[in-house]
Structures are given as structure tokens and as C-alpha cells.
């Protein structure tokens, strides 16, 4: 069975396992970062309503980071999951340090720091256990074995259920998996970002790990969203600026025309492409509103055929979108890019 054929054979229950050892989740997850100011102001009431709506629609995996809005995001999720905790799996990233002004202060994944971060997340989320706990980035000062070992201690103590990774490369994945089973790697993947296909996805398959795929809309680039103001961190993203931004806009226009010809929105096409290419993995949709979420989820009922995928990739071939996915300084420290 090919990847594209597999798209058509998803369970009627719409359940995808997170690797060999993880939970089964709805085939699409909800990412909550944008609800805490990453793309400018968001309305808390609508954010909570969107998370609750996602759960009502069947979504089970809710993804956050303890540093999103300096804890604001976890507090939002706490409100949203009250009374329905048993219906969701919480995926939490940790380790990224922030100053009072939100400035990035580096990464800390020392064992003591891991347990400290976990204690605060448990408190803010109002839960007794975190379903999947993962370092947001590799700490160059701390062996991955030490970090994974600390999370394993939290599992033994009953505070965490599963271990995940985020934005790490093949060597780190292998080393981590020797310490404790890893259920998934969180990595950016979209028709505009295909790097993981070359070596990362094959290693995950070899080791029996899954992936949760963020950035499927390329931070709104593929849907036509533009940076909206001072608080929108996309202003610093190479793909949105200067000559690259203008070039990318012309490519995106073609994707929009493709979507229109098929009676789909750009978000639906972008998500459907990921589902067709990686049917055993779990894309994360970063919706801020119920309307955005409902629009995207239509993709589950409008799968792209092999012919559609080929046609779309002729319009947006690998490398068609110019500019790196993060600013140059950030790219230099990403273990997944090594």
C-alpha cells in the first residue's frame, strides 16, 4: 500500500497511533501557540472556545509549550479542558527560557530543570499527569541522554506518560531512543518545508516512532496570511520579507488557484497534502478561531488523489518557496538541520 492509497483507508474512528508505544490520537492535532500572542493579540474567550470546539469535533491531541506567553497558553488550556480532561492528550514542550519581556534566554534541559518545568506545567494545566513531555530544542550543554532520563524519572513517578522530542536530528533521535521509548518527534513539515523527508522520516519509521507535524500552513504563508504588527514574530521570518516574500507570494497565488479549481480553500489543500504524503503521522493545525479550525478539518473529507498531489507538486515543487523557515541565527542552532 502506498502512502497515497493509505490516505483512503483511515479508520472510520479516525485514530492514528503515536508510534509503537504511544497513545492513539485523532489524525489532526490542535496547536495552541498562536493563542498566546505569537502572531499578535488573540482573544482569550475565542481561544478557549476553539479548544473546546476542537475537542467536540473529535480532536484529542492538544499541543502547547510552557513558554508560550510565559505560561499564558497552559492557563488557557486549563480553562478549556475543565471537565473533559479524559478526552484529550496534552503534549507539552519545555526548556525554552523567557525573560519578563518575552525575550529568548536560551535553553535549559538539565535534569533538575526538567523536573522544575514539569512541576509548574502540571500546576498551570491543573492536571496530575502530562501525556507527552518533550524538550522544545536540544540543549547543547546537556547530553540528550540526561534529559530523556529525567523525563523517564517523571514517568516512573507518575507525572508523565510518554516522551517526545522536538526539532532534533537523526543522531539525537537514535541516542534518545536508546534511553527510553520515544513516541514522536515534533518537526516542521509542509509542502513548503520538506526537509524531514530525506533522512528524518526514514529513521522514525525504522525506530517505530511517529511525528507531530507543525507549520503545515507555513505560519499562514500558504493561506495568504500576512504579518500583522509589532507582536507578530513573522516579521522576522525570511519567507515573508523582501525579494523572497514577493517571490513566495507568486507561488502561493498558484496554490490558491489550484485550491479554487477543486472547490477547496488553501488551508484545506495544504493540510490535505500533508495527510496524503504522511498518512501515518499527525499534522498539527494552529487555528486561533473555531472558523479556522472548521475550515481546515474539511481536508479530512476531501483527500487529494495521487494525481492531485502530483499536480500540486508541479506547481509548488521542492525548493519553490524561498527563504529559510526561521531566521539565520535560529537555523544555526537547530539540531534537526545538522
Shape: globular
Tell me the fraction of residues in β-strands, as a range: 15-25%
Count of runs of 4 or more consecutive helical residues: 12
Q: Provide the CATH top-level class.
A: Alpha Beta
First and last CA, distance: 32 Å
- In terms of per-residue confidence, which ranges show pLDDT below 50 for 5 or more consecutive residues? 1-12
Query: How is the main sheet built?
Result: 8 strands, parallel, barrel
Provide the gyration radius in Å.
Answer: 19 Å
Helix coverage percent: 25-40%
Strand order of the largest sheet: 3-4-5-8-9-10-11-12
CATH architecture: Alpha-Beta Barrel
Q: What series of H and E elements makes up the topology?
A: HEEEHEHEEEHEHEHEHEHHEHHH
Protein structure class: alpha/beta
Quick one: CATH superfamily? NADP-dependent oxidoreductase domain
Overall tally of structural domains: 1
Here the CATH topology equals TIM Barrel
The number of distinct β-strands equals 12
Mean pLDDT: 92
General description of the model:
By secondary structure, the protein is of the alpha/beta class. It has a single domain (3-9, 26-337), classed as TIM Barrel (Alpha-Beta Barrel), CATH 3.20.20.100. It contains twelve helices and twelve strands. It has an eight-stranded parallel beta barrel with strand order 3-4-5-8-9-10-11-12, surrounded by five helices. α2 packs across α3 (72-81), α4 (111-125) crosses α5 and α6 packs parallel to α7. The protein is globular.
